[in-house]
Design brief:
By secondary structure, the chain is α+β, with helices and mostly antiparallel strands. Helix content is about 55%, strand content about 10%.
């Protein structure tokens, strides 16, 4: 675990403001000590070599091709400083169930003492659940028991606080009431002695305290389960930094707990049928993450990677790392002044708007989740701060996760299938999302999805509440044998938290409405085959092109600041002439015929309507239907189709980066041999359609249903 702090009005944890104190180091020099206020965050690191160019999930370089190095350091110096930090952390402990078993199998008394402590706490909780079940009050008391479990985890210490936070992201294990209550777990544990912290800094960095800092706070600004944070001023540069120091003996404490919890996991797998997931595997995964938090160099590398991928946007701030003052148990980062995102009054006092900051968070989160796949998995108010200059600062880079490339596309496709109410396709998406193995029959899941989403989708997409969707989907996951990957549970949690923050400022705010422009942009411009097929599926239904869907996608896509008109629909155009595009070509030919007919007949109708009434009566012998033999409904349909196509064209034209060269790829397509055949088929279809119309007018035969729906 690691901590980062940020100060300012609205900070949630602090010791007050005042004059600096002094701490006398081991030399005769005096080091000034600060009092201040701070907001606490906690992290879960992961090793990412920062000395190489970071790539996204598609192995493409990020647009910001250069790594970000500390001011005053060139690339070589920064890499060398990071290498020295990694060398200092070379002996960091890693999670090994085998080593833990070997260690604690020979310490039965210590194991027994801790086992009794845990069993008494959890046993009393289990007894209450048994009584509730016997009295038929299990559902009635869910909220009460969830609150009690949160308190028990807090009393049992750091490992169980972490475990509770991990369970709060697992809808396949816990009912909704427990998910909500456990998500409120805080790392508010007692601090450890400052003398031990200062000694740890000197031991880890190999330098005396007064040679590193010109001042440092006499007490921790914030404390959490695995460490505590001090505010300091670097002596060499005068920069204000956050110094995070690991809690002494934490490896021993969490090692024993995970040894015991893993043993319990074997019993759950063997005797508890209601839980379908492999509990031991989940414990091992979770323990590995917690152990990674014990190596602060890894969190520093996480922060660097995050900064590289997402801090290219001017409204996003990510603190940087001071490698020369970082080791396995000490992390030094930029100090960030700011206000927690759920403190609306303090934010507005600075002339900022909470919703603007939340929207920045949502857009950045969507890029994290669905573009590069590397995301901040715990965006709670303590580690999302509003800076005085209006930026959104991300802190806490320990709990990071990655979305597999296939799953990124599948998530977007899942949203499309949800909007289309295609529940069979939604169920099949769970294969790509790695919820189910491909030999599992998903047909029994379809009715459950239909029952929930038919009711939820009575609202428009812009009115859908994300928490409602998550709760409903969580209920489905809990009822069926899903194995929810950790990344997906963390995605649900992060977006739910962002929506909750926005609701402080606007009770009507909806995350899905704010996210839809991003989804629309990706569908229109992304060449990924999965998304291309999802777009075609969205635009075509029952052999007809849904122009209203395309218009809506363009309207929404234009709201995304990165939308490019020149890239819109290019993936579909490329598929049009691909060897496997015959089915799409047939659909396009039919639609091209319809559109051309609409424009020709619409022009005829407009011309007829522009003729004075007297002349129309003389020319058409008083025929009220004019020159065309068609019903009012058909005429309105023709005019509507033409006008809709024109609106779509105007939408493209009005795009900020519109260029007439947008049509160049289409012209290039039409020059290919396959396209000439396609063009000939379109022209032939138009000719036949207009000839049929002309024959109808000559013979005054009403149009048949088949003729009007080609």
């Amino acid at each position: 675990m690691s901590l980062v702090v940020a100060v300012g009005a609205g900070a949630g944890v602090g010791i007050g403001a005042g004059q600096p104190f002094c701490y006398r180091g081991r030399s005769s020099r005096r080091v000034r000590l600060f009092k201040t206020r701070a907001a606490l965050v906690e992290s879960r690191p992961r090793v990412v070599p920062a000395a190489v160019t970071v790539r996204d999930g598609n192995n493409n370089n990020n647009n910001n091709s250069q790594l970000i190095y500390r001011k005053g350091l060139d690339r070589a110096e920064d890499i060398q400083a990071e290498a020295r930090a990694m060398a200092r952390a070379a002996n960091a402990t890693v999670y090994s169930p085998q080593l833990l078993a070997l260690k604690y199998n020979s310490r039965p008394i210590k194991v027994l003492r801790r086992t009794l402590q845990i069993l008494i706490a959890l046993g009393s909780f289990g007894l209450k659940l048994a009584v509730d079940q016997r009295n038929g009050e299990l559902d009635q008391n869910k909220r009460l028991r969830a609150t009690e479990l949160r308190r028990i985890f807090t009393r049992l210490g750091p490992t169980f606080v972490k475990l509770g936070q991990g369970l709060s992201t697992r809808p396949d294990i816990c009912p909704p009431e427990y998910l909500e209550e456990l998500s409120e777990l805080q790392d508010a544990l007692p601090t450890f002695p400052d003398e031990e912290a200062f000694a740890c800094i000197e031991r880890e960095l190999g330098l005396s305290l007064d040679s590193i800092y010109s001042s440092i706070s006499p007490q921790p600004i914030a404390a959490a389960s695995l460490g505590q944070v001090y505010k300091a001023q670097l002596k060499y540069s005068g920069q204000i930094v956050a110094v995070k120091v690991q809690r002494p003996g934490i490896e021993e404490a969490i090692g024993l707990d995970f040894y015991l919890i893993r043993g319990l996991g074997f019993l759950v797998n063997k005797y508890v049928d209601i839980i379908s997931s492999d509990v031991v595997a989940l414990i091992d995964e979770f323990a590995s993450r917690v152990y990674q938090e014990l190596n602060y160099v890894q969190e520093g590398q996480n922060a660097r990677r995050f900064k590289k991928l997402y801090a290219d946007k001017e409204e996003v701030l990510v603190p940087d790392i001071f490698w020369d003052y970082t080791s396995g148990k000490v992390l030094t980062m930029d100090w960030v002044d700011g206000v927690k995102l759920n403190e609306q009054a303090a934010i507005e006092k600075q002339g900022l708007k909470v919703l603007d900051l939340v929207n920045t968070g949502i857009q950045c989160s969507l890029r994290q989740l669905l573009e590069y796949g590397y995301f901040h998995a715990d965006p709670h108010p303590g580690n999302l701060l509003a800076t005085p200059d209006g930026k959104l600062a991300f802190l806490d880079f320990g709990m990071m996760s990655e979305t597999p490339e296939e799953a990124r596309s599948a998530i977007i496709g899942h949203v499309v299938h949800m909007v289309n109410r295609d529940y069979e396709a939604m169920a099949r998406d769970y294969y790509a999302l790695d919820f189910l193995s491909r030999d599992v029959d998903v047909s029994p899941i379809v009715p459950a999805l239909r029952n929930f989403f038919d009711d939820a989708l009575n609202s428009t997409v812009s009115e859908l509440n994300f928490k409602t969707i998550v709760d409903g989907l969580g209920a489905v996951l809990y009822q069926y044998p899903f194995n929810v990957p950790a990344y997906y549970a963390l995605i649900l949690r992060s977006l739910t938290v962002l929506e909750g923050l926005a609701l402080y400022a606007d009770p009507n705010f909806k995350v899905l409405a704010a996210s839809y422009p991003y989804f629309a942009k990706r569908l229109l411009t992304d060449p990924n085959p999965y998304l291309r097929d999802a777009l075609i599926e969205l635009l075509f239904k029952d052999g007809k092109f849904r122009w209203n869907r395309l218009e809506n996608l363009l309207v929404q896509g234009k709201k995304d600041r990165d939308f490019s008109a020149k890239d819109a629909l290019q993936p579909v155009l490329k598929l049009l002439l691909a060897p496997d595009g015959e089915e799409l070509r047939n659909l396009v030919i039919k639609e091209a015929v319809r559109v051309n007919e609409a424009f020709v007949l619409g022009t005829v109708i407009d011309t007829y309507n522009s003729i004075p009434d007297l002349m129309r009566t003389l020319m058409f012998n008083g025929n009220a239907t004019g020159p065309l033999m068609m019903s009012d409904t058909e005429r309105e349909s023709m005019i509507g189709l033409r006008d809709q196509v024109l609106r779509i064209w105007f939408l493209l034209q009005s795009s900020e980066n519109f260029d007439p060269a947008l049509l160049q790829p289409i012209l290039q397509v039409l020059q290919q041999p396959e396209a000439r055949s396609l063009g000939g088929r379109v022209i032939g279809g138009i000719t036949q359609r207009l000839a049929a119309r002309l024959l109808q007018q000559v013979l005054r035969i009403p149009a048949t249903a088949s003729a009007t729906t080609l």
